[in-house]
Amino acid sequence: MRTIVYLLFLVLIFSACKNDSGKDSYTDIADFKSVHEDGYVGDVQCMQCHKTAFKEWKKSDHDLAMKIANDSTVLGDFNDLRTTLDGVSYFFSKKNSNFSVHIKEIDGSEQEYIISYTFGVHPLQQYLIDFENGKKQLLRVTWDAVEKKWYHQYAGDKMDPHDWMHWTESSQNWNTMYAECHSTNLKKNYNHQDDSFKTTYSSINVSCESCHGPGEKHVLWATNSNEEDGVANAYILKGNSQFNQLNMCAACHSRRAKLTENYAPGQYFEDQYLLQVLDTVNYHGDGQIKNEDYVYGSFIQSKMFHNDVKCTDCHNPHTLKLKMQGNNLCMQCHEPKYNEPSHHFHSVDPKSSLCINCHMTGETYMGIDFRRDHSFRVPRPDQSVVYGTPNACIGCHMDKSDTWAANQVKQWYGEKRQEHFSDGMLLSTKSGMTPNERKMLDDYINNLKYPAIARATVIDNLNITSTAQFLPILNSLKDQSPLVRYNALMKFMILNPAERISIASEHIKDTS
């Protein structure tokens, strides 16, 4: 009898739960009225349902992208430490709960500042200081979290306090240069009349809603939808496909110019940003990284990109760490033969046989931050011999020459190298090219087998010296890539105004 009563009790409970979330209490999403600013609900709301993802995200580089300065967030040594770097004297101290730094500049001026926020965590941590008119500035002196010491990112430079690159000036202003990619739902709110900011954000760091978009409608869907709705639209950005995922990541992981006032999650990247082509200031002539490119510009050159590989195929999207260590990560997709000495011709040890040391060389940025090239390219020392580009072989065998490396590759793989888009890019940087070489490049820019960013780069590199050279550029105006179309359109800037108008008027209604 007791068992029957207990079962009846459970039936009543479950019936009550079902009725509670059924048609009677259902609010149609069309009748939804937002109660959160811009629809951002905050991480605590997300954590209630997504505990595993939240736990993985906690203490990640995204979580620690920016924090209020306190005992639990500040890594630097503020224990009455004095140091002088490039002629600038620093005294780091802590007064009550405030972390402060007294600075004597190279011109003799002195001032003490209170640290307001931490910026990043590993391998370095930077610090923000509040200035007047709502400005925040990024202190030049930086904490090396690995070696546990203070250092200057641009070591050796003696920076005048009035120089644009000085940490108190515009180049190191948080509001315009860094904030959008370190906080969630950032609005600069700049007033040009008094040169002031009233910058706001929904979350101080890179939170759930930075990537997945405002969660208010998603919460309503999750807690108040009926069974007929299904999961076709959960009112949240999921990033399941490569296209959608890159749309989420590229906004911050790219070298680009902003086209709109504020970032809109989910909106097509090309409608909000202009991606930097592979110019020889930020990249080597073959497209390898030189200055920091933040990954996206490299990745979309790669075979990985063109075979639909996503960021999350290699990286955990919440911890941001690699899903596997060593060559096991690559062997998720690549045949085991690529992990054998018959392919890499090196001994099987943790360094020389590591895939990334040949196919993902890197550069050190910000003084100590080593980052790998995501164009996943085959080493081409033969190009290095002609054009002076770097190659992985000499990166390790520093006592050898590019010619030696090129000959080694010939011995292993034969005389002929596979065609690669970098051949055309390098040719486009050459001065005094022959008519045949120019014809090759005219064909190149409209050949869809080459990466769009490479074709856009070649267009940008080309000089127009005759009317006939405009014809292949005209074809590029119809390209499927907005980046190609944009760079093609820019070549017509040298025409007179009437001719420019006739070309440009056809593209006013371009989809991007």
The oligomeric state of the chains shown is single chain
- The radius of gyration is 27 Å
How helical, in percent, are the residues?
25-40%
Q: What general outline do the C-alpha atoms trace? A: globular
Number of DSSP strand runs: 16
| Main pleated-sheet profile | 6 strands, antiparallel
Quickly count the helices: 20
Note the gap between the termini.
71 Å
> Structural class, please?
alpha+beta
Mean pLDDT: 92
Report strand %: 5-15%
Low-confidence stretches: 1-27
List keywords for this structure.
single chain; 512 residues; alpha+beta; six-stranded antiparallel beta sheet; four-stranded antiparallel beta sheet; 13% strand; disordered N terminus
Describe the structure.
With 512 residues, the chain is an alpha+beta fold. Among the domains are: 66-197, no CATH class; 306-421, no CATH class; 434-507, no CATH class. The protein contains 20 helices and 16 strands. Strand 7 (124-130) and strand 8 (136-138) form a beta hairpin.
